[in-house]
Design brief:
mainly beta, Pemi-like Protein 1, Chain: D, two-stranded antiparallel ribbon, globular
Length: 58
């Protein structure tokens, strides 16, 4: 993180849904805007310590 960057914590809860054989969650508008996520973007999803999922815009 650069010296002038600010750490931002955005917390949300979502229920896991199902589409076909896959599970899904929705991303809240606040996070979409904060990360400037657009349709077609690639997100990296990392499982940490068996309890935490970290998502990074690639």
């Amino acid at each position: 993180m650069a010296e002038n960057d600010e750490a931002v914590l955005i917390y949300f809860k979502r229920k896991v849904g199902k589409i076909g054989d896959s599970l899904h969650i929705t991303i809240p508008k606040e996070i979409v805007e904060a990360l400037d996520i657009k349709q077609g973007d690639t997100l990296g999803i990392f499982a940490k310590d068996y309890k935490t999922i970290e998502v990074k815009k690639q």
